[in-house]
Amino acid sequence: MTAWGRVLVGHIALFLCFGCGLKEVLGPSDSVGRQLQLDKKWVRDTLIQQQPGYRRQNRMTPLMVDQLVIQGNAADAISAYYRHSGHRVWQLPVDQGVEGGADSFDNQIYFVTNAGYVYAHDVLQNKRVWSYPIKFEGLARPFATKDMVYVLSGNNVLHAIDRKTGLQKWLYNRPESTPISVRGGSRPSVEGATIYVGFSDGYLVALNRQSGQVRWERRLNNDRRFQDIDSSPVIDGNRLYVSSFDDALYCINRETGEVIWRADGGGVSTVTIDGDRIYYSTSQGQVIALDKSSGKRIWTYELARGYATKPSVYKGLIVVGESQGGLRLLDSQSGQSLKSYQTGLGVVSDPLVDVKTGDVFVVSQDANLYAFRISWRSKRQSWP
User: Strands, DSSP E only, in 265-333?
Assistant: First the structure.
């Protein structure tokens, strides 16, 4: 081979090696060869002032109201940001912060604080509407309907509040049966005339949502150290799906409370249902896919460390936060990891995914609110 031939072969080999490296940088591709992208759009610090050494977890799921993203931190504030630019529209100081979370109805948000109050706040006018004392820290996300706001306080009391006036309608109280429980709380779920909620004593309870009268109660976990049911019951037809912390995931008859099936693997995460599958994050550091009708496991993704948040589904992807990682995208069919982004101290807040745009909003453990965009690009668009 001539000297010129050897040079030409060397250049071809170099180009092929560069192409192989480029494929890894660009990430996995879809059926038409487009590359999956996870782009950071912006990031904002949600704290009013830095809180060195504070231990509370930033667990509030971001909330979308009109074109605003509402985010509270577990230290000192709740804020509103314009979704496209991250521009802060307003910031409200909150004594001891917002950990449990918020819900919205008619451009008003309803959020619960660590100082023991529920607040109604007009998002567009930045104006408080009412406040309601729950007299204990609020660790569970409220549930707002057209007439009521339901919230579970940290001492196992379910409060039913008139949404317009902020006046108490009724209370349902369960005595603490164990001195040891997980920090958290179950967000109530409402369907028709019934409200469903879990408690730290291992009971799932169905109540009349107007009166608070018990329809049925079912103990799901009574032989483990942590009996808590901190996940929100998910309603699907005549079935409920709910997990207890260190026990199992349960499928329950919604009318009677009878257990239809159980799948090993406890957790605090609320399940996500998509078609005939359930996606679920366990307290043992797994993200799993199960058959909805039987509870049979289809695939398992093992985290390297920590645990994952509630899974969200977007165009064949599973989106989760990792407590000792960041944001991760999995293939919904196989559980294969496709993309990730490290956010510093990790994520324990459920990501908010806009299925219309591919925008993802999530707050990190160090109280930074991130906006991402999931997209697919052709190789030509991605070429440097």
Answer: 272-274, 277-281, 286-291, 297-302, 312-314, 317-321, 326-331
For residue 313, CA distances in Å to 20, 328, 355 come to 30, 12, 8
SS3 of residue 11 by DSSP: helix
Asked whether 198 and 230 are in contact (CB, 8 A), the reply is yes
CA 323 to chain centre: 12
Instruction: For residue 53, give every residue at least 6 positions away whose Cβ sits within 8 Å of its Cβ, in sequence order, or none.
Output: none
Two tokens, residue 19? 């192409």
- Point out which residues pair with 336 in neighbouring strands: none
Element (H, E) at 9: helix 3-26
Q: Which two tokens stand for residue 154?
A: 């940290």
pLDDT digits (tens, 9 = 90+) for 75-118: 999 999 999 999 999 999 999 999 999 999 999 999 999 999 99
Q: What is the dihedral of CA 247, 252, 255, 256, to 10 degrees?
A: -60
Give the pLDDT confidence of 24-41 residue by residue, as tens digits: 333 466 656 789 999 999
Q: Are 157 and 136 in contact (CB under 8 A)?
A: yes
The rounded radius of gyration (Å) of the Cα atoms in the chain is 23
Quick check: helix, strand or coil at residue 382? helix
pLDDT tens readout for residues 212-241: 999 999 999 766 667 889 999 999 999 999
CA distance 286 to 352: 20
Residue 22 confidence class, pLDDT cut points 50, 70, 90? very low
- In one letter, which amino acid is 371? A
In the structure encoding, which two tokens stand for residue 124, read together? 């567009």
Closest by CA to 240, choosing from 228, 260, 254, 220, is 254
**Cβ atoms < 10 Å from Cβ of 116:** 18
CA–CA dist 341, 335 (Å, integer): 17
pTM equals: 0.89
CA distances from 54 to 97, 156, 367 (A): 12, 25, 11
